[in-house]
Amino acid sequence: MADVEQQAPMIPQAREKSEQKKLLEQTLDDLLERYLLLLDGYQTLQAELNSHLASVSDIQRPLGSRGTVLTSIASSSPNFCVLDTLPSSSSVVDAETGSQHPSDPLQWFGILVPPALKACQRDFKAVVSCAPMIASVTKEMKDVEIEVRRTRKRLSKQS
């Protein structure tokens, strides 16, 4: 009879521990699913970046850019993005000489711009917009990896 009384309080504790373990396992499953989705997006972005870089490297001379790439970093999770800092006017004033230049480098070649150069500029712009997205996904993947390790550690302590 004494054994039955000692086992009765243990049953709710065991049930609670079992529920905590199931919750941790579900959390781990959710984190791993999120990681796989991020990995898929990362691979897609990498393939896109590689195809654009291959096109850009076909041109012998790199294009100059008068824009600036800025990143926006939040406190908890960085979100990288490209901000276009070119003025909306059709020309840019050179600070050193005071002369005006077209804001689009392709206009420097006049009306006979080679098609390969136009394609290179388009692909370069795609690379510049793709690279920050890859950086954001990489950072998020690292954050998820850390959470997976923490959850696995808590789960091993539960066992």
Give the SSE map:
Blueprint: H1 2-56, E1 91-93, E2 100-102, H2 115-158
Antiparallel strand pairs: 1-2
Helix pairs in contact: 1-2
Poorly predicted runs: 60-75
> What order do the helices and strands follow?
HEEH
| Shape label | elongated
Mean pLDDT: 78
Distance between the termini: 30 Å
Considering DSSP H and I runs of 4 or more, what fraction of the residues is helical? Answer: 55-70%
- Rg over CA atoms, rounded to whole Å, is 27 Å
What does this molecule look like?
The protein is mostly helical and 159 residues long. 62% of the residues lie in helices and 4% in strands. The chain is built from two helices and two strands, in the order H-E-E-H. The chain has a two-stranded antiparallel ribbon with strand order 1-2. Helix 1 (2-56) packs antiparallel against helix 2 (115-158). The longest helix has 55 residues, at 2-56. It is elongated, with a radius of gyration of 27 Å. The two termini are 30 Å apart. The model is unreliable at 60-75 (pLDDT under 50).
Q: Could you list some keywords that capture this structure?
A:
159 residues, mainly alpha, two-stranded antiparallel sheet, 2 strands, 62% helix
Task: Write a brief structural summary.
The protein is mainly α. It has 2 helices and 2 strands; from the N terminus they run H-E-E-H.
